[in-house]
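Re: beginner question about structure tokens

> Can someone show what the tokenized structure looks like for a real chain? I only ever see the sequence side.

Sure, here's an example I had lying around. Input first:
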Amino acid sequence: MTATAPREEQLWSRCAGCASLLYRKRLRRNLDVCPECGEHARLGAPERLRQLVDPGSLRPLADRLPEADPIDFVDVVPYPHRLSAARASTGLVEAVVCATATIGGHPVAMAVMDFRFLGGSLGCAVGELITRTAERALDERIPLVLVTASGGARMQEGALSLMQMATVSQAIAALREAGLLTVSVLTDPTYGGVAASFATNTDLVLAESGARMGFAGPRVIRQVTGRALPEGFQTADFLLRHGQVDMVVQRRSLRGRLVALLAATHAGAPTRPSVPRQEPASHRERLADDAAAATRPPATPEADGTPAVRDAWDTVRMARHPGRPTTLDYLDSVFDGFVELHGDRLGADCPAIVGGVARLAGRHVMVIGHQKGHTTAELVARNFGMASPAGHRKALRLMRLAARLGLPVVTLVDTPGADPGVSAEEHGQAAAIAENILALTVLPTPVLAVITGEGGSGGALALAVADRVLMLENAVYSVISPEGCAAILWPDRSAAPQAARALRLSAPDLRRLGVVDEVVPEPPAAAHDDPAETALRLRAALLANLLPLLDVPPAMLVRLRRQRFRRFGAARAGQRAGVR
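And the corresponding structure tokens:
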């Protein structure tokens, strides 16, 4: 809804759907839904909570976190200035409001996102606050209700914002294990890293009427494909037709639907099987530090003790070099006896994901990776390494098979991102990525990930929630491409080199931030100049990191993996900000 004039702002609004002039008090009584055409205006988090929870039941959770600018990001405006402006304009501390409350008398923990605050973007603080809310739900054994409104991960926090997708997902996994209900309410809009994690990996997914949800936004899809989008693309009704949500609910009915779902859960509670109670968050953060250190071999030193310094944009171009070894190249040179397995068992076999059983120094492992190619024909045939939903589901099938067979999983990550196409959205791209991330947080077998080329956003993270994350020296790993970041935050895409430097996407930067555990040095020029030597170095790094993991009991592996990603919250961001 838009105001007709400043002096009438409090009295009248014009509907964005039908352009009707509406009396503001009448509109508010109708829950900010146009009585003429049914257009659902966006709500801020405080108003959303007032509409959903029982009067007098709301108990806000602490939202004060250490001030942090973890990668010292600057575009045309320094990141701290953007935060200050968002706080001044919204009156909120961050892009989410968290609380406990009752809905229809049923206690819940709630995290409600607010699109007004930097587009509802998911950064370290937002991830930390939602994770704490999930942990409160676990401690109090009550359902978790998430209301999402977000453009995706917060690019100003680089790969650390990407890690929040895993951090929140593993908190949801803990609630699943405890038999506690998780509910996501999609509101307009929900995109990117939020859509591909906690917005779609809950037990129930409801969409408010008029909401839009997807992994890639419509503008990006149009630019990449050059195609017009189908009528109603990514809207709530589109999502319902394509099996991606449980129901579409009018705003006036949303509270009632939540009450009914919570009541059913409460009625079933006495017959729920008993599960061990997880330790409180404060205890979890201290668990098994000694054991974690014991499973982490020292980083492989370069010849002079430090990685070569290369400009970030030069590294991006190096990571994208068409001669750079691919997953199939490494399967031929690093591993032995690879037997490829195909298909997602639902109707497709994505060529951008290859996987199967192989041997590493005589030990059987499951290897899964993105496959690009070297020639134009190969790149096109493999969709440039951009996995479709079928590719993510194939990877998930192979991961679960590996766990059943007791095989370690090795993933090789080299993708610009997930498939930004219409078909991918129709087949549940966001939910497929979200399910992979969730599954990896609980997979009871060693998982070792290597960023070999491009590690692009959620498409990369879907294979990189691991016990150990390695990265080749000239690879990159980022929440967004430099070109995409420049197009959003700078005047034009020509600022991509500046964006690359600001994103801290190179291996040395990510090693300092703790996103990757070890940098694997490449030959003096680059991997594509000496693939044989690169393969030898990668093989040595894989063995050095995998062998200690084989002796860790499965329950401890999962616990340490979760601890690893839990540490990416804002509580530690202030400490990281001082490490350069």
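Each token stands for a local structural state, so reading them left to right follows the chain. The mean pLDDT is 85.
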